[in-house]
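Agenda item 2: uracil complex prediction
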Amino acid sequence: MQAHAQKAALQFYLDHGVDEALVDAPVDRTKVKEKPAVVAKEPAREQTAPARQSYATPPQQDVLLGASDARAEAVKLAQAAKTLDELKDAITAFDGIAIKKTATNLVFCDGNPKAEVMLVGEAPGADEDRQGKPFVGVSGQLLDKILACIDLSRSEDDPQKAVYISNILNWRPPGNRTPSPAEIEVSLPFIERHIQLIQPKVLIFCGGVSAKSLLAIGDSISRLRKTWHDYTPQSLPGEASAIPGIATYHPAYLLRTPAQKKAVWADMLQIKAKLAALRS
Ligand code: URA
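Presented output:
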């Protein structure tokens, strides 16, 4: 095949979301007749995260072997981290999550750690994986515009105007699939410790996965929006004072459903009002 044809074929794959090589050698599936060869070494991947009531106890149908050990290890490592650097090192060292092997970079945070507002998204995508920073792709650009509407920015030095950003998962799920319950389970202690170390005045749960995971509620994002929730960590033992948190639609959803921008504008106004009330 000519080079330009190969490039066009690769671009075609990329445009259709095929951006991950799962086996070393190509497989000619047109040659497979009766019994298809088993080529994927990884377990079948879940496409959607089912609604769950709580992450406090690891689910029995966990897809990872030894998931409860992995969760216990994650809790231990997260609790031991006393600074953001230690937490980042702990996540890097943690081997209980398989997607660490397929990801290019750890995606830990962006923004000002002194910010009064912390936003938690779902998981890194391809752009974030490449750059090692959350929300740097198209949805990140929209997110920046949304936050700017209420005078918040991740590049602000002033804590009252700054935002700090992270995700439930620190590694990119291959093909941008939805994180599985098992992955959320073992990642939760880390993001909960992350929130404890930042101590924001207000939390924004960006998208359904973030809201449901951190609030341990199975309700849909449209039900969880509009009201303030008292967030307390569920995976880390000990007393913690509640942080007011609000859920909003994920910018990736807004890109597909622009009509919901109105709803997100309403959420932003609620955040602005809450911050003003907390400061007065
Ligand atoms: N979507 C997310 O939820 N997080 C990112 O960092 C990027 C896209």
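Discussion summary: Residues 121-125, 128, 134-135, 139-140, 167, 207 surround uracil (CB under 6 Å).
Owner for follow-up: CH.
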